[in-house]
Every structure is written in C-alpha cells, then in structure tokens.
Specification:
alpha+beta; 9 helices; 212 residues; 10% strand; Glutaredoxin; 4-stranded mixed beta sheet
C-alpha cells in the first residue's frame, strides 16, 4: 500500500476542495494518508510570495474560480465572513487532537475545513471556536507551547522538502501541488510508467531566460 502525505492549511479554499475530492479522485486505489497541517503564510514568507487573496484582482478571480469548482464537483462551499484570516487557532487545534508526533485524523480535518468553508461565518469567532474545541475534545491544549512548536516544526519540515503551497501531496518523494494535481497523483498511484522514466526529472529542468 502506498502512503500519501497531504499538506494543508484550512485557510486555502483549494485545500478544502482537494480534501473533499480526494476519496473520489483516488477511488479504487490502495493508499493511506497522513494529514499534515502547515502555516501557509510561513511558506509564502519563506519563498517570497504573496497569497492569492492578497492581490485584489487575483483575489476576485480566485473566489469566482473556487466557487465554480465547488459547483462543478457538487461540494457545498461558502466563503467565510473574513478572508484572509489568521488560521493559527484552527491549525493548532488540528495538532492538539493528535498525540505528540502524530497527525490529525480525517474526521478532525473534516470538521476544521467545514468550520471554515461551510456556512459563511467568521472562522475565528470565539464562540464558534469554543464550540468546535468542545466537540473535538483535543487531548492537548491547543495553546500550549508544545503544540505551537509542533506547528512551527511541521511548517519548517515542509519548507525543507521544497513545499511552497497548499494543498501539496507527497508520494514516494514526489510532490504534487494543487487541486488540479489530483489526476496526476492518481496516475502515479496506478503506476504510470511516465513517473519512473526520465520525463519526470527532465520536465523540471527549464533554464530561466530572465531572473528578477
């Protein structure tokens, strides 16, 4: 059985859609998944990028696009009352529900994603956060130094692997970025020979003609 690491931040609508689509996209294939929360803002800062919601024309297109994708795939989706927002409380809650060194299970991740992307409410509303925490009953304090450090460590580890955005899937040391990489991920799981031929490595070698 192959293993997939799914790197995500609940702030990302593409990560939400990829999370919901994953079982259908990989239907009939044998695999297991570890869900790995990381701070998207930390990735952006490291690689010197802005998030799509920080560039106004791109923000407008991004939300039109993700709502179209949600409609196309039949996935319920409502933009939260504020976006972007600070996702730290939710990411820490994800890790607090797992024992030290472990990753959150799919149910916990589902509750966190749907907390943000269904209903159109404020993801950081104190009353909603308190109720979500009560429902998930995490084993550890989400505000503890241990959990905070675990998120920092997870983000640093993702950066060390070359991860620059979410969602990212890791399979056999290969990284697949974005919702639209799911068919490619499925092909790799099926054993498509392209991934073991020179094509995988040679395709990544594109010498830049201009550097800014």
């Amino acid at each position: 059985m192959k293993h997939i690491d799914f790197y995500f931040d609940v702030i990302s609508p593409f990560a939400y859609l990829a999370f919901e689509r994953l079982p259908q996209a990989l239907e009939g294939l044998s695999y297991s998944v570890s869900y790995r929360p990381v701070l998207f803002a930390g990735l952006l800062s490291h690689w010197g990028q802005k998030g799509p919601a920080e560039i106004e024309p791109k923000r407008a297109w991004t939300f039109r696009h993700v709502h179209w994708l949600a409609h196309q795939h039949g996935i319920p989706m409502q933009t939260p009352a504020q976006h972007p927002f600070n996702p730290l409380a939710l990411l820490r809650l994800a890790l607090a529900g797992a024992s030290d060194g472990a990753t959150p299970n799919r149910f916990v991740c589902e509750q966190l994603f749907r907390h943000v992307w269904r209903g159109g409410a404020d993801a950081n509303d104190p009353a909603r956060l308190a109720e979500l925490t009560r429902q998930l009953a995490p084993a550890r304090d989400a505000n503890s130094d241990t959990v905070k450090q675990a998120l920092k460590d997870a983000t640093a580890a993702a950066i060390a692997k070359g991860i620059f955005g979410v969602p990212t899937f890791e399979l056999d040391g290969r990284l697949f970025w974005g919702l639209d990489s799911l068919p490619m991920l499925a092909a790799c799981l099926r054993g498509d020979a392209w991934f073991d031929a020179p094509a995988w490595n040679s395709a990544a070698v594109a010498p830049p003609g201009v550097k800014r």
